[in-house]
């Protein structure tokens, strides 16, 4: 099934085989990465730009309800606004925080679809994430039956160890600073494996293969830097 868009001639949702025009994208050996991810049970989509990634996500979710994981990628794409404009029922704790709705995480993780990003994706086909609350990672494998993660090329890491280091040295310090957490990384941008009450690194997950609970786990790999 092809997604109707400008580049349909290059791209097929079930068979993302590419012409030479896309061979440079995302990483130096994109075809091998796609094949590895497909072997791990993931459904791979290719976007040449942020706009295209958003369009693919909107096409995938159709008219269904959507829960949004916390994500600077989704925020940068204006995903909440795009879904609302599309008429979807959308649950987002970034818009309705738990202080306003104590069941917001439950609603997000009970929707028809779950949209988020991944902190890292590895060349050997794994998704690495670290959460503070745990709702976001739970939404990837124990929430909605349909999951789509929009992933920019800046999230690429060689393996799980490199992905973990990427999160600890780049992602978590930036998030701690953004969220005004009282952690050492928020001050100097470096992980100290702290014991702070405000520590945001509390749940670490590696998704090796599509989780059994999830019907389809879509990866929208985007040839652009998205989030951090
Ligand atoms: S363990 Fe602590 S210092 Fe390290 S990244 Fe997480 S919150 Fe920051």
Give a quick precis of the structure:
This protein is α/β, with parallel strands linked by helices and 228 residues long.
Write the layout of secondary structure elements.
Blueprint: H1 30-39, E1 43-47, H2 50-61, E2 66-68, H3 72-77, H4 79-86, E3 90-92, H5 104-108, E4 113-116, E5 120-122, E6 127-131, H6 135-141, E7 146-152, E8 156-157, H7 160-178, H8 184-188, E9 203-207, E10 216-222
Parallel strand pairs: 1-10, 2-3, 2-4, 4-7, 5-8, 7-10
Antiparallel strand pairs: 5-6, 6-9
Helix content: 25-40%
Coarse structural class: alpha/beta
CATH architecture of the domain at 29-169 and 209-222: 3-Layer(aba) Sandwich
Query: For the record, what is the CATH homologous superfamily label of the domain at 29-169 and 209-222?
Result: NagB/RpiA/CoA transferase-like
Bound molecules: iron/sulfur cluster
Radius of gyration: 17 Å
Q: Would you count the extended β strands for me?
A: 10
Sheet with the most strands: spatial strand order: 1-10-7-4-2-3
